[in-house]
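#structure-requests
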Amino acid sequence: MFAKAGIVREKEGLAELLKKLPTYEDVSNLDLDALDRETIEQLFMHITASLIVHGALLREESRGSHIRKDFPSTVDEWQHKWIIFKQGKHDVRDGLYEQNQIARNAETVLQ
């Protein structure tokens, strides 16, 4: 995982790693009751790794500390946008919206 899906990644390495990880078809018919705890933990680690690799393949940009060597730049669509989580709900807002809200609140306080 670290070598192919770590901080620096590229499509070829991710695709190579994905071939080694279980698919939905591989795990959908397993009888978890027949497996011991260690095997189930390893299976879930592999499923988690598969989800991470699928997400990394879909993200065709570099963002934060995750760098795609084949897509070194960020996507402008998400510049100045924040995802805010409050009490189990989330909202996507841009920086300009937040600045306007702060300015309105300041005007109300000053009046």
